[in-house]
Design goal:
By secondary structure, the protein is an alpha+beta fold. The protein has helices at residues 6-17, 23-30, 34-46, 79-90, 116-125, 154-157, and strands at 66-74, 95-100, 107-113, 133-140. A four-stranded antiparallel beta sheet has the order 2-3-1-4.
Length: 167
């Protein structure tokens, strides 16, 4: 499966909005019968377009009131040292995302904790002691304007027609 048609894109969009749809509901929403819809979903899964199904949990409801953006500066960016740092970061449950970045810094983390004291403990005892970390820079979220795991899909329908803005 190398290309996606309008039905595949519609399936991806519907499943991003509600992954708990039954196959019959999904098929009806995208304009297919149940069997072809089911086959397409399986093909999207097997091709890696759909990586999994997850529940979205409200972090505030489970007591994770602090969201911090943490930039880590590495001492050196050589292969083995970077891999060691990456592996250590993967083991920290409070780190919900990590990106290897360009520009100033080496890694950009999103970190959640209960409160500022919990974050301070994590920073002092874990983040500052990561292998190959020279410096830690933190910014705290003062409020979420938009938080979504849903990816834009419209570009898949207008490939070859420009960027679609201003139309």
């Amino acid at each position: 499966m190398n290309t996606l048609d309008k039905f595949d894109v519609a399936i991806l969009g519907q499943l991003q909005a509600d992954a708990r749809l039954t196959n019959a509901e999904l098929a009806q929403r995208v304009g297919l019968s149940a069997a072809p819809c089911w086959r397409r979903v399986r093909a999207l899964e097997e091709a890696g377009f759909i990586k999994g199904y997850h529940a979205e949990i409200d972090r505030h409801k489970i007591g994770l009131g602090v969201l911090a953006f943490v930039r880590l500066d590495a001492v050196r960016t050589s292969g083995p040292l970077t891999l060691e740092t990456e592996e250590a970061i993967r083991k920290i449950p409070e780190v919900v995302s990590c990106h290897y970045i360009s520009g100033s810094g080496t890694f950009e983390l999103q970190v959640v904790t209960r409160d500022l004291d919990s974050f301070a403990q994590l920073a002092r005892h874990v983040l500052l002691n990561l292998p190959n970390v020279k410096d830690v820079h933190t910014s705290f979220s003062l409020g979420e304007i938009k938080a979504s795991a849903a990816l834009p899909l419209e570009h898949l329908l207008r490939q070859g027609t420009g960027n679609g803005y201003g139309r």
